[in-house]
Amino acid sequence: MLDFFEMKGVPFTREISPTHLFHSSSQKEAAARLEYAVQHRQFCLLTGEAGMGKSTAIRLLVHQLDPIHYHYLYICDSSLTPKLFYREVLQNFGIQPSFRSTDAKRQYQSLMLDIYENEKKLVVIILDEAHHFSDSMLQELRFILNFKQDSMSPLSLVVVGQPSLRNLLRVKHLEAIEQRIQMRYQMSGLTEKETNDYIRHQLKVVGTPHEIFSEEAIRAIYNFSQGIPRKINTLCSQSLLDAFILGNKIVGESHIHRVINEL
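RE: above sequence
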């Protein structure tokens, strides 16, 4: 199929290099807010529907972190518990966690302060899939950030999840967590123009020398996907295959509708 469409690589995949990512208005704003939150050791909440580009925003953030100044830890565990959190952080830094949770928490606090005050580095902890967190894990976020009688933070905490996470944090007994969030952003889908630009960008990255998707096809892709990048990728990949099987060099609206029917 790649030879048929004169491509040098596979487009519309998750494996695209951070340097080749498409920057929509939502991605740019997410990147700016995340960068600011990290630089100022803030608690940041990043939300968005599934497939909206949250993971892409995090990949870009991590790619930009200078290892001379930052340590980062990415944890994606929908069943994360406070005990598992402290164990994961300590083991990541080569420390054997204490068996008792209270002792492991003290180890964690000492470690974070040591890295910040003595190594002069900033730890960035990213917790993904947070909309699945238990009540106890959500409540623990308050203590993860509590240093020196809650007067400072030696780290930046980025919590990522679907929009339902915002509602979870609004309940009365989690109000103390909600109030601690210093930066928040909810990602949105691509506009119709951005969808067009995104598709052309993906094809340009793999060296395609000519247009493949018709304007009608792109409009149909946008209408079905509502600008959600993961849905756009799926539609484009499947419609390319459909056009290849039928021997068509141009992906038209009919290919998109056939794929939509199959989906």
